[in-house]
Each structure stands twice: as C-alpha cells, then as structure tokens.
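Task: sequence in, structure out. Protein: phosphoglycolate phosphatase.
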Amino acid sequence: MQIFKNIRLVAFDCDGVMFDSTRANQTYYNTLLKYFDLPPMDEKDFHYVHMHTAAAAIDYLFKGRVDLEKVRGKQKNFHYPDLFPLMIEEPHLRKVLKILQTDFKTAVATNRSNTLRPLLDHFDLTKHFDMLITSMDVVRAKPWPDMLERLIGHFGINPENLLYIGDSPLDAQSALAAGCHFIGYGPEDLGAEVQITSLAGLPELVMKGCA
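Result:
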C-alpha cells in the first residue's frame, strides 16, 4: 500500500470527490439550454462541464449558438442554491475531515466559482477547511497549477507536503504541474500514485506516513 510521507496539507476537489453533483449540474445547464430552445447535454457535454469552470462550460455549450451575454444574464438570475438538495455528500467525507483535521491543514481547490462557500455552508462543512480556493481566486483555473501553488505559498510548505485528491484529468494535470502528490478518486484511471473509490481509507494513507 502506498504511504504518503511528510504531508502537511490535504486538499480536495469539490465535484466528484466531496459531492456527487451530477443531478445538480445536469439540471443547471439543461435548464439554461432549454431556456434558449437548445437540446439537453449529451454524455460528452456533461463530461466537459463537470471538469471545467462555469465560464468555460457556457462557452462550450453556447458559443456560436446563442449570444453569450444573454446566457450570462440568465445565469445571474439563476438561484443556484435551489440545486443544493440535489447534491449528494460523498460517504465518509465528514468523518474523514474530522480525522484529518487533528494533524493536517485541509483545503478545497475547485473550478467552481462563487457557489463553493454557500454549498459548504449549506452542508455545514466550511468549518472543516482552513482555506478555500476557487476559479475566481486565480488567473488560471485547472488544469493550470495556480490553485495548488497558491495553497503551497499560503501555508509556507513545499510541493511534496501537499496531497491533492481529484477525480478528473484536469485535477491530475494540475497536481503534476504543481509537483505535489495526487490521489485519483473514482473509477477513471488518472495515472495517479493511488486510485481510490472510497474516502474511508484516506486517513490511513496519509497518517501512516507521518507516524
């Protein structure tokens, strides 16, 4: 079993790692598409929007089909918190965070924007994190390493002291570029040092290396 040594900060992606946001994101983007008389997303569309920022997703879905300013205007009037009940918290997440907090700093690094903090507040999870980084906090979102590099700088650690857990190729690319450790979450093979399908064993992977 892979043991991660000298980890000081454990950072999580949001969608696909902390939450199953499939229904929420499908509802959000399909509602916008329907408003502009466009067909719903197919599997390829959803795979793209799941990983990327909302701005990139809107460009991908609407560019060349609808005036993007009209779409952005509709976005501003969409009350995203209405979709929070469709978000499913990943099993073991809360317990794992409580365990990790005893010995490590914790953070979120996500391509979400201004919906992250309200989402965590809704689920009473904000208190479990020392720092939140979204696409709004950096010039370049994932797959660029800017979010992870900002975490490294903020906590005054070396890249090898950071462990990032993500579920997409963008997460893997970001971690590789930042020079930090990476755990892939979910069924997709991301070429990670370790691939897991449950958060339950995460504390053991991290804490054994610090014993």
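The first helix runs from residue 22 to 35.
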